[in-house]
Specification:
two-stranded antiparallel sheet; 2 domains
């Protein structure tokens, strides 16, 4: 069956589906579908262009969906000048065989759910990419990779496991820690989250009281989100998840501005606030993120709910004793599998994954030291999610990598100023900057 082609102003989009093994070590076993969207500019549709595959952040989120305006702004605009772009829905996301509470309900036991989810880390994603490269380009033709955030983690694994498939690698906010367990990651990132809170309240001092008022109210009343989940103080603290983005402070502030309304029985939480709050979180719609986020840091060790354990070292996050509400960041906690209705079916599986200590290695130090693939990375100085110091340490172990360390952007720099960032990285990788 021919691939479906869609034409938008400035874009030609072609759908691709690939059937790959769930477990590449058992090629005759279960298969899953990987979806990818090819993007090219209309004037270059028939040109034999090099390919650039985009690896999305996450884990557990599908690739961006292009609109016609993307051909005029953003990183895609810059990429389409030189490349045929492949937007890959990593396994379990988007139009690839989905992973969610509904699809995982088909398994009889939590152990079966956990065993299935073990196949959705960076190592399997890269083997999918190599399968697709050979299908589209043939075994001898290399392609370029642009990895954002977790997509960069995948790209560094790519450099370790299959560098023969790579022409060049471009990373934005995506240099993973090497030889550091999850505990080290959270010891580095919790202080950055605290600093983001300080800056937030410095910008919006009235929100100190607003946030305390919300915590006091939801602690004393049963407040339910539109999905039926109860809004607890600790769930409210997860509003800080977005503080690492350039617009994160404003999104939280404008939401808090309308936290209360005067109802029939007096002051109560505004429904608009509850809907907006819920829409800012995707833990239940993207459970790979909730189940495997700590596992992306694991090699031969268990995470053992690292973020929960490390949080105890930072009393600022205790809303009962701190002078203000400190919002948390990119951390997953075991209580979430009780409080998020769509995650409850995965609670036991999540416990199994948190205790699992046989995760295979993701990075080959010898291969990275011997790297010959041109590689460049944008490292964001104040990155709340990917610690800059750990990223710089990793760069010292990748032969030939060039770094652009900048405080002009937050972690979402590629989304807000992608044409400038990608252009700079391409100049660097081609020796023009």
């Amino acid at each position: 069956m021919p691939n479906t082609v869609h034409r938008l102003p400035g874009l030609v989009l072609t759908d691709h589906e690939f059937h790959v093994p769930l477990d590449y070590d058992r090629p005759d076993g279960e298969t899953i579908t990987i979806y990818a969207r090819e993007v090219v500019s209309p004037e270059r549709e028939s040109v034999d262009l090099p390919w650039l595959v985009y690896l999305q952040g996450g884990p557990g989120f599908g690739s961006p969906r292009p609109h016609s305006f993307d051909s005029k702004t953003g990183w895609l605009k810059r990429a389409l000048r030189d490349y045929r772009v492949l937007l890959l829905d990593q396994r379990g996301t988007g139009l690839s065989t989905p992973v969610n509470a509904q699809t995982l309900a088909r398994f009889d036991t939590p152990q079966a759910q956990a065993d299935y989810l073990k196949h959705f880390r960076a190592d399997s994603i890269v083997r999918d990419a190599e399968f697709i490269r050979r299908q589209l380009l043939g075994g001898e033709v290399r392609w370029s990779v642009l990895g954002q955030s977790f997509g960069g983690f995948c790209a560094v694994h790519y450099l370790s496991a299959a560098p023969e498939g790579l022409a060049e690698v471009l990373l934005t906010g995506g240099l993973p820690p090497l030889n550091h367990p999850a505990d080290d990651v959270y010891r580095a990132t919790y202080p950055r989250v605290i600093e983001k809170n300080r800056r937030y309240y410095e910008r919006y001092p009235d929100d100190v009281q607003r946030a305390k008022d919300v915590v006091d109210y939801v602690a004393q009343h049963e407040v339910y989100l539109p999905t039926g989940d109860r809004l607890s103080p600790r769930r409210f603290q997860q509003l800080g998840m977005g503080f690492g983005a350039s617009d994160g402070f404003e999104r939280a502030h404008y939401l808090l501005e309308e936290a209360f309304v005067q109802g029939a029985a007096g002051l109560e939480i505004n429904h608009a606030f509850l809907r907006g709050f819920e829409n800012m979180q995707a833990f239940d719609t993207n459970p790979i993120y909730a189940c495997l986020h700590e596992a992306i840091y694991c090699e031969g060790v268990a995470s053992s709910w690292s973020a929960e354990r490390e949080r105890a070292e930072y009393p600022e996050f205790d809303v009962t004793s701190s002078d203000r509400v400190y919002f948390t960041g990119e951390m997953i906690y075991p209580w979430m599998f009780d409080e998020y209705w769509q995650l409850r079916i995965l609670k036991e599986a999540a416990e199994i994954l948190a205790a699992y200590d046989d995760w295979p290695s993701l990075y080959d130090a010898a291969a990275l030291h011997a790297n010959t693939v041109p590689c460049v990375a944008a490292v964001y100085y104040d990155d709340m999610y990917v610690d800059r110091l750990l990223a710089e340490e990793t760069a010292q172990n990748i032969q030939g990598i060039k770094l652009w360390i900048t405080n002009e952007y937050e972690h979402n720099g590629l989304r807000i100023d992608g044409d400038i960032i990608l252009n700079r990285l391409l100049d660097m990788v081609h020796g023009e900057a």
